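Catalogue entry: protein

Sequence with per-residue C-alpha cells
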Amino acid sequence: MMQAFSTCMGSLLGHQWAQRLIKRVQDIITAIRASHRPKALLEEIAKRMGITRILITSNKTRFTSVHASVESVIWVQLALQELARQHPECLTDQLLDWFSDGMFFIMIKQLCKIVKPFTLVIQAVQATCETLADVTRYWLYLAKMIPQLPFQSINSAFGKWCCIAFNTRQAEMLSAMCKLALFLHPRCRDALAGSSSLWEEISVEAGMLWQRREASRPN
C-alpha cells in the first residue's frame, strides 16, 4: 500500500510545472545555506522580523521532505525579500529575479497546498499503528481532497496530471480486501452496510481469506 502512495506522489512531483518550482526552491536553499554571508544575513533579518523557522533541504527519495522544503521558503519569504532589498550584492541575479517576482511565491504556496494532503497521508501511513482500513480511508480522503485543490488557478494541465496519477493506483487501493477492511472498521461499518453489491463482494473476499487460512494450517 505504501508503494501506491509513493508512486502516486512521485508521479505528481514528476510533472514539469512542479519540477521547475521544486528546482527553484532547492536552488534558493542551496545558494543561501552554502554561502556564509547570505546565510548569516538572512538569519539576522529573520530574527529581527520574529521569524523562527529556517530553510530546510529536501531529499528526492523522501517525498515528505519536498513539502517541508517548499514550506520553509514560504515561512521565510519576507526575510528573503528583505535580504534582496538590503543586500542585493550577496545574491545572484537569478535569485533577485525570483524574490522580486510575486507570482513565484504565489505558485510555490499553491504547490505546497497541493502536496500537503499527500504528505499528511504518507506520514500517517508510516505510523506503526495504522491498519489496512485506515490506509484505505486515507486514500478515500485524497480522492475527496484532489477536486478541491487549486489547480485551475495555477496550471490546469498539472491538475489533470495529478488526477491521472491518482486514478492509475485506484484499483489497487480499492480492492475487495480493502473494502472488507473498511467494513470491519468500527468507523466505517455503518456507512457500508447498506450496499448489497458491496456486501456480496466483501463476503466472497472474507470466504477466500478463510479458505487460505484453513489451507495454511499444519495437518
In short: Residues 179 and 202 are 7 Å apart (CA to CA). The mean pLDDT is 78. The longest helix spans residues 102-125. The chain is about 75% helix and 0% strand.
